[in-house]
Amino acid sequence: MRKRVLGLLLVSCLLLTAGCGDKENKETKKDEKQENIIKTISCVNESEKSEIDKDDEGNTIMGIQGQKTEYKYDTKKNELTEVTASVYVKFENASEDYISKQAEEAKSTCDLFKDDDTMKNCEIKKDGDKVEVYMVADIDNILDGEDISKTASFEDIEKYVKEEAKEDDLTCTIN
């Protein structure tokens, strides 16, 4: 009798752990599928550190300027779903007041896009020594008049993006 109870416990434990393993594998497969739905093409360019300005006391302010554009393609829907762009400056040797002033002045860039149909959103992000102009494009309007549509294949979108990136000396990667 005792051997039978121990045997049942052993079989029960094996069944329980086998069931949990199956569930975990199913969840992992589901997560992997979700990850593969969105492919992102990121195109970036960042300058070498250089002199950007001088502060009120004549001290040199150094910095790095860069830009980044991201294209998100939904492989399940087979369409381009989001395009974002940002330009930024990472300051070095700059006071907090100077950086805040630059962030305020950057707002005029967003003002240029207020009546522009190509941008859905434009905002200024200030994070420590970095000031960024971050924009979300209206896909239909930015592709209007182009030889490609948002429902083109991923390969065609990738080719289009890389050709556009060459003009701005951007390096593109796919995630």
Give your account of this protein's structure.
With 175 residues, the protein is α+β, with helices and mostly antiparallel strands. 41% of the residues lie in helices and 37% in strands. The chain is built from four helices and seven strands; from the N terminus they run αββββαββααβ. The protein has helices at 2-37, 96-112, 139-142, 154-167, and strands at residues 38-46, 50-54, 60-74, 79-92, 119-127, 130-137, 171-174. Strands 1, 2, 3, 4, 5, 6 and 7 form a seven-stranded antiparallel β-sheet that branches. β2 (50-54) and β3 form a beta hairpin. The termini are far apart. 11% of the residues are buried.
* Assembly form of the protein: single chain
- Low-pLDDT parts are 1-24
**What shape does the CA trace take?**
elongated
Summed up, the helix count is 4
Give the number of DSSP strands: 7
Content-based structural category:
alpha+beta
The helix/strand series, from N terminus to C terminus, equals HEEEEHEEHHE
β-strand percent reads 35-45%
CA-based gyration radius: 26 Å
Largest sheet: 7 strands, antiparallel
Give the CA-CA distance, first to last residue.
59 Å
The average pLDDT is 83
Helix proportion = 40-55%
